Amino acid sequence: MKTRTVLSIALIFAIIFGLNGYIGWHGHVFLSNQLGSSFHPGIYWVVFWIVALSYLLAWAGSKVLPAGMSRVLKIIGSYWLAVMQFGFLLLPPTDLIAGILHLASVPADTYIPILGWIDAGILAIAMIRGAYNAQSPIIRKYEISIPKKAGDWEQLRIAVASDIHLGSIVGNRHLRKLVRHVHELKPDLILLPGDVIDDDIKPFIRYDMGTTMRELQAPLGVYAVLGNHEYIGGHIPAFVEQMNKIGIRVLMDETVHIQDRLYIVGRKDKAAERTAEGRKSLAALMEGTDRAQPVIVLDHQPYHLDKAEEAGADVMLSGHTHRGQISPNHLITRRLFELDWGYLRKGNLHAIVSSGFGTWGPPIRIGSRSEIIELIIHFKSNEREEE
Fold first, then answer.
1. What domains, with CATH codes, occur in the chain?
2. Where are the alpha helices (DSSP H) in 246-322?
3. How far apart are CA 252 and CA 377, in angstroms?
4. Which keywords label this protein (predicted)?
5. pLDDT tens digits for 237-272?
6. Strand-pair partners of 170
7. Above 90 in pLDDT, residue 1?
């Protein structure tokens, strides 16, 4: 197992350094063509590698670097992750075109600046548009009916925000947008299906995000579950404590019965399966529930929809996938999950997967949007029971 881990890490680093070297070489060729004798390769490569490795430097030096420096490095590195992906997509076709032009005896001084500026323009457009998609959340509305009674409730309005990823990149400014939009929805209930924070709890505390998040309020309460990033950060007790302080209950393999009308089942993230305590099965969590009443399941990663349906869940809310966040990554998430984004009816189960409110890594979205889900559930008793 250790050998496999070492090999996996070595492969990741080889890809990171290889891809960055490939991008850096193209930047070297382009800038030397544009700047001529005023271009200094040594300075270029030092600056390039500091930028290219800034995310790793922020992570590795988080315990020794000043908080401000670590945050700046992480922000630079986050945007660079997007540059890496766009470079991976843009540069091979560029090289192919350059090769064809070279074989056609077109002078390099002619096609290098043209191709370079075209790539730079495409990159700029993608980054600007991607930043807009990430920072301009939309409300995505789903309206469903459940053939069960929920006391005297005829319907329930729920605001759902997954994958907020609060930390060094997503902070109070974006969080205030969430608060404002949720207030406008006037929900009866607010649900947060995991990855509320982005690994480290310290930025959440340092920038007093709890004061902003405390404004998320609804008559029936605010409930959250753990995501994989809470496990990656390893600060779960501190996270739960912070949530308790602001009135948000974190459900860790727990079931709550709201006003004797509705069940909310909150699962630990799938990452818990690799820990000593593990996580309970959904069937075990639902023991003792009255299946004649509606059941909403919060499970961060949208695996095993069939098991949720078999267990008798009516609604399953998830996130995690970000819908790939940057296209064409959605082609990968689509293969990994039965439902990687949107809505799916599976038997009696209504499954909904959000692309998330925040972002991981670059605050960039292409082919996806930052979203808040407005879920309206209509309750109606089974026709046979009414007869």
1. 2-133 (no CATH), 138-386 (3.60.21)
2. 282-285, 305-311
3. 24
4. Membrane, Transmembrane, Transmembrane helix
5. 999 999 999 999 999 999 999 999 999 999 999 999
6. 166
7. no
